Structure to design on (397 residues):
């Protein structure tokens, strides 16, 4: 029985697995949904608490780990305009609200952990839910139900996805979402990650981009002074598939975005990240690129502008398997510091196990070019406009 007086932080969570006291824990009726996977998660976290993982060492994890869950107090949020639900998919903890007027969606199946038929359909995805040693493991363990969308073969579709709660509370909100793109499909997803005001949100998204298909992902991360948001995206790129990701954000009290790509034969991945930090906001980006088979391409380009007292960190790793001959991999991270009180950390890593590849990388942290600033001011722009122009040029080049 849940005890309303109990409070806990993420730091406490590994020691609480298997104890039925969390409001958003997979309840007893879902215990058999992924029994082996849940056991593997527990074993993994018992051995290595993701909060203390090396991959988070530059990411001010104390802000996240001390977040206190104060369930079950909550209230319904203010009603949103009806128009917001006409074309958008609303994704919450264990639930999906489909666009209004689209009860029959051609080529799209909704996977909902509360439905017996969908639960049976979700079983086939067990192999893709393995412990990662990252904070997103908790998003699996602490969600009320897994959810997802499956696109049929040959589907061409654009969907707007809004990750936003339907209630207002201080609880730890966890979303475990899956996107299965059928062979030969061309899917465009426009995502908006809405921050949880005065709360913490963990989102784990798994994208299966099957053979011959293409995914274009356009993501916008919202920001707020008191929000803590972690988005962990896992991409399984089947042979002959294409993935193009464009993401942007302004940071938050704590914001973390992680991209993990498994790239198979003759597949191509492109990631374009743009972040513009001000005030005392934090933003931390991690990218893992795993080239597992031959003739694959990856092009990673992440840029951050860091102003005020903000903090930015980047960790990127390219792994090339010994069988992944013909790989062409690029990894670049550039940071523009606009304040003496701002911080930017960049950490590239390479793990290359074959010689028959082309691989390049570069990470920089630089200040604004004073000569360029002077030139713009000499042409009539005041200091702030000149500074803003150079910032936009840096992000968009």
């Amino acid at each position: 029985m849940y005890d309303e007086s109990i409070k806990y932080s993420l730091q406490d969570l590994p020691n609480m697995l298997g104890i039925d006291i969390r409001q958003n824990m997979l309840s007893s009726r879902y215990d058999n949904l992924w029994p082996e996977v849940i056991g593997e998660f527990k074993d993994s976290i018992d051995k290595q608490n993701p909060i203390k993982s090396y991959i988070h060492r530059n990411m001010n994890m104390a802000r996240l780990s001390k977040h206190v869950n104060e369930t079950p107090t909550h209230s319904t949020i203010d009603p949103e305009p009806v128009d917001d639900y006409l074309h958008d998919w609303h994704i919450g903890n264990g639930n999906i609200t489909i666009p209004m007027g689209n009860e029959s969606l051609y080529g799209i199946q909704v996977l909902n952990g509360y439905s017996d038929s969908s639960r049976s359909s979700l079983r086939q995805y067990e192999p893709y839910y393995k412990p990662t040693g990252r904070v997103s493991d908790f998003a699996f363990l602490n969600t009320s139900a897994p959810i997802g969308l499956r696109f049929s073969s040959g589907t061409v579709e654009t969907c707007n996805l809004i990750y936003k709660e339907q209630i207002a509370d201080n609880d730890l909100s966890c979303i475990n979402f899956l996107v299965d793109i059928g062979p030969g499909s061309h899917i465009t997803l426009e995502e908006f990650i809405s921050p949880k005001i005065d709360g913490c949100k963990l989102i784990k998204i798994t994208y299966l981009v099957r053979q011959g298909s293409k995914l274009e992902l356009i993501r916008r991360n919202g920001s707020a002074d008191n929000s803590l948001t972690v988005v962990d995206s896992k991409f399984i790129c089947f042979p002959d598939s294409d993935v193009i990701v464009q993401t942007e954000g302004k940071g938050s009290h704590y914001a973390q975005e992680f991209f993990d790509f498994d790239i198979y034969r003759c597949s191509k991945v492109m990631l374009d990240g743009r972040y513009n930090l001000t005030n005392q906001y934090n933003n931390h980006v991690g990218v893992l690129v795993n080239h597992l088979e031959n003739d694959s391409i990856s092009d990673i380009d992440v840029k951050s502008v860091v102003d005020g007292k903000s903090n930015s960190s980047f960790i990127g790793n390219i792994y090339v398997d010994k069988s992944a001959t013909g790989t062409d991999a690029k990894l670049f991270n550039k940071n523009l510091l606009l304040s003496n009180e701002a911080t930017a950390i960049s950490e590239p890593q390479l793990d290359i196990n074959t010689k028959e590849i082309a691989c390049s990388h570069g990470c920089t942290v630089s200040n604004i070019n004073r000569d360029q600033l002077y030139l713009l001011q000499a042409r009539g722009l005041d200091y702030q406009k000149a500074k803003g122009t150079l910032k936009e040029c840096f992000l968009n080049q």
About this structure: Residues 20-26 have pLDDT under 50 and may be disordered. The helical segments are 35-47, 61-65, 116-122, 136-141, 370-378, 383-396. The chain has one domain: 8-396. The longest strand covers residues 172-181.
